[in-house]
TrEMBL record:
This is Cytochrome P450. InterPro entries: Cyt_P450, Cyt_P450_CS, Cyt_P450_E_grp-I, Cyt_P450_sf, Cytochrome_P450_monoxygenase. SUPFAM superfamilies: Cytochrome P450. The keyword Metal-binding applies. The keyword Disulfide bond does not apply. PROSITE patterns: CYTOCHROME_P450 (PS00086). Keywords: Heme, Iron, Metal-binding, Monooxygenase, Oxidoreductase. Belongs to the cytochrome P450 family. Gene3D superfamilies: Cytochrome P450.
Length: 458
């Protein structure tokens, strides 16, 4: 059995590059060592960009892996709580997944579709012709409105406004590349008073917690009559023993859905607007498809448009929001495709490197939505949402949201990417995810004539 290529640089030495220039870090290692390599020892971290090995990892029994108490992910405990799906393991992870999955299936999507289009129009009402806006912030405004409405059924009121404002401030603060050190090194999470960076997060977070607990308590006493929002469904869900989720469990899962459910989609949407407005041929073809479809009464019709779908898929391929899947630690040795991974090894299917394999994606640095119309990729070749027992539970929701928000924006506004930004842009770190650079701005030029009637301007 060959030994795995790689280096044994300790974590503290490789962390600055991994945190501040993650894509260069991955690409350097890939060039040097190939599609499966290890870094560090005791335990080694193994990055995988080989579809056959990724397939074996995604198809393996969940009992083969665990999540460590001290991992990059554990730095998220402060934000999400220790009963978050992202941080749970074993039977408790299985139980929570079963209780959380139903709102993300089937018929629910139709109701979310209407909400997404309405809230996008609401957010766009503040755009002014000639006044540039920060693209990621604008997309985050939309996705935060959408997730609050989907999760809580909330759309207005003091609690909603405050929650929206606090979540946005908290995540903006945590979103700088340097704040990522707080996540990777939880030991840095020290409260030195309200003016210190971490002290500020702690105070905002405790106000958010109080608002969420107040909402849970109100809703337990007075359930919504139609009960179609995610919180209502989670309150009434029962596990195999007939047990409901406790207030603490509900709080942590709500926080998880709020954070995981809008940060990621906002970055993906910002990238999609950038690509569409940088590349005229993509813009033209997308508009042709949208114009041919007309304004449908059923927003879900847009979700089936092939080129729009391909643009969103290519957006998530070229710069996946999560550069690797979540952490998976082996409970026992694993032999696959000629490799032997030792017990205790930390496995990371590397989404970015897999999506940039020349053999799967010719000219991988080029944004070419067409490749998704010409070829069907397997769930081990294209993995923006990970896979296996820890796959993203919001993947269908996120993809639909991307398509509907993008279609709604393009139908209503003519936007312009400033001259200076019509060039290759590289992602920057935002916590555990990657986002477009903070200077990505766009200018609304004019509302599209056919749509002026349809957009309620505030
Ligand atoms: C473009 C948007 C999104 C991307 C790129 C994305 C990506 C991912 C990835 C890569 C993982 C880890 C999968 C693995 O380790 O195999 C994940 C997990 C997760 N995602 Fe998403 N996600 C997105 C949107 C959402 C949304 C909208 C929600 C919920 C409303 C959500 C909720 C979650 C949760 C709860 C997990 C943890 C699952 C578990 O550990 O069992 N995500 N996501």
């Amino acid at each position: 059995m060959p030994t795995l290529p790689g280096s044994n640089t300790p974590f503290w030495q490789r962390a600055p590059k991994l945190i501040l220039r993650p894509l260069d870090y991955f690409e350097d290692n890939y060039r040097r060592y190939g599609s499966v390599f290890q870094v560090g020892e005791k335990p080694p971290s193994i990055y995988v960009a080989d579809p056959a090995v990724i397939q074996a990892i995604f198809q393996a029994d969940a009992a083969q892996f665990h999540i460590p108490s001290q991992s990059p992910g554990s730095g998220l405990t402060f934000l999400l709580g220790n009963q978050s799906l992202l941080l749970l393991d074993g039977e408790r992870h299985r139980r929570h997944r079963r209780l959380l999955m139903p709102p993300f299936h089937g018929d629910r999507m139709r109701a979310y579709g209407d909400v997404i289009c309405t809230l996008t129009k609401q957010a766009m009402a503040s755009w002014q012709p000639g006044t540039a806006f920060n693209v990621r912030a604008a997309m985050q405004d939309i996705t935060l409105r959408v997730i609050l409405k989907a999760v809580f059924g909330l759309g207005d009121g003091d609690r909603y406004d405050r929650l929206r404002q606090l979540l946005s401030t908290l995540l903006e603060g945590l979103g700088t590349p340097f704040s990522a050190f707080f996540i990777f090194f939880p030991g840095l999470q020290k409260d030195w008073g309200p003016m210190s960076p971490w002290g500020r997060f702690v105070r905002i977070k405790s106000e958010i917690d109080a608002l969420i607990y107040a909402e849970i308590s109100d809703r337990r006493q007075q359930p919504y009559p139609d009960g179609t929002d995610i919180l209502s469904m989670m309150i009434s869900a029962r596990d195999a023993q007939g047990e409901p989720l406790s207030d603490g469990e509900l709080h942590d899962e709500l926080m998880t859905l709020l954070v995981a459910g809008h940060e990621t989609t906002a970055s993906a949407l910002a990238w999609s607007l950038y690509w569409v407005h940088w590349l005229p041929e993509v813009n033209e073809r997308l508009h042709q498809e949208l114009d041919a479809g007309g304004l449908s009464a059923d927003p879900l019709a847009d979700a089936n448009l092939p080129y729009l779908t391909a643009v969103c898929q290519e957006t998530l391929r070229i710069y996946p929001v999560a550069p690797t899947t979540g952490i998976r630690i082996l409970n026992q040795p694993m032999t696959v495709a000629g490799y032997e991974f030792p017990s205790g090894a930390v496995l990371f299917p590397n989404i970015y490197l897999l999506h940039h394999r020349e053999d799967l994606y010719p000219e991988p640095k080029a944004f070419r939505p067409k490749r998704f119309l010409e070829r069907q990729y397997s769930p081990y070749e294209y993995v923006p949402f990970g896979g296996g027992h820890r796959s993203c539970i919001g993947s269908a929701f996120a993809l639909m949201e991307m398509k509907l928000v993008l279609a709604t924006i393009l139908r209503h506004w003519e936007l312009e990417l400033p001259e200076g930004l019509r060039r290759p842009l590289k992602p920057v770190r935002r916590g555990l995810t990657l986002a477009p650079p903070g200077n990505l701005r766009m200018t609304p030029l004019a509302q599209r004539a056919a749509q002026r009637q349809a957009l309620p301007l505030g």
